[in-house]
Amino acid sequence: MAERSGSNWARVIFRFCDRFSYLFFKFTVVTYCTVFWLIGAFILIVGIYAEVERQKYKTFHGAFLAPAVILILLGILMFVVSFIGVLGSLRDNLFLLRMFMCILGLCVLLELNGGIMALVFKQKTVEVLNKNIQRGIKNYYDDLDFKNIMDYVQTQFKCCGAKEFKDWEENLYHSCSAPGPLACGVPYTCCVRNKSDLPNTMCGYKTLNKEDLEVINIIYIRGCIYAVIIWFMDHYTIMAAILLSIFIPQLLGVVLSLLYITRIEDTIVEWKSSTSVLLSSSTHSASTIQSEIVFTKLGCCRCYPGEEVIDGKVPSSTMVKSELESRN
C-alpha cells in the first residue's frame, strides 16, 4: 500500500482475475470435483461387487494381487477426496478447498516419486515384482484373481513365469516331484500356438526338466517381467499417453483449486475493503471511493498472485492490513 500526499487516499492490492470471473472458477471446480466424485463412486461399487463375487469362491486371501481390494481402496480415495472438493467449492469453504488441493498435490508428488524411484532402482523393482509373482505362482490354483491375471499376461505378452518358465517348479502341482499329469509341466497359457488353434491343456507337459532350446518351439521361455518391460520400452508413446492421462487431470485440479482459493480470498478482501471505505469515507465522492480499490495486472492469466509497484515501492500485506485496521 502507498499513501498519496495531502490526502487519506490509499491503494489496496488484490490478486483479482480480469479474465475469469468468480462464477467461472466456481462452476469449473464444482464440475471437476463432481465428475471425479461420480467416477470414484462407480469404481467403489464395482470393487465391492467384485469382492462379493470373489468371496463366493473362497479364494486364497494371501495371494499377490486382489483387484477387487485395489478397486475398493482407489474408489474410497477418489470418493472421499472429490467429496471434500465438491463440498468446499459449493460452500466456498477455504479450509476444505485447501485440504482438497493439498491431498491432490500430495497424490501427484507420491506418484511422481514412485515413478522416479522405480526407474532409478530398476533392479530392485524387478526383484520386488519377481518375489511377489513367485508367491502368486505358488498359489496359482488357489487364487482365481491371480490365475486370471497371470493367464492373460502370459497369453498377451507371450511369456511364461516371472523371470523364466522354470519358475513354475515352485507350484505344487507343476513341480517335477509332484504326482499327477501336471507334474514337470507349465500351464497351457505358456504354450506357443496360433490364434486359430484350439487350446491344448497338456501342451506344456514335461517341459520343466528340459533346456531352453529343446522347448523353444513348444512354450514361451522368456519371463513375463522382462516381456512386459520390453513391451513398455517398445510402446513408450502409449505409456506416456497413459501416464499423462493420469497425471494431468490431478495437476489441473491442483491449479484450479489454487486459482479458486485465490479468487475467494480476493472477494473477501474486496468486500471488507469496500465496506471500510464506505464507512470511513462518507464525505468522499463516488469516483474517489471507487478509485481506492486497485487490482493487480500481474501473474499467469492475470489470476495468479502478484504485486503492483506503486510510486517505486512494493506494498506489503502487513501495510495493507494495518491500513484496513486503521480505517475501522
Automatic annotation (TrEMBL):
Record-linked InterPro entries: Tetraspanin/Peripherin, Tetraspanin_EC2_sf
Chief localisation class: membrane
Cleaved signal peptide residues: none
Annotated CDD domains: penumbra_like_LEL
GO CC annotation: late endosome membrane; plasma membrane
Protein topology in the membrane: Multi-pass membrane protein
Stated name of the protein: Tetraspanin-15
Organism: Geotrypetes seraphini
Lineage per the UniProt record: Eukaryota, Metazoa, Chordata, Craniata, Vertebrata
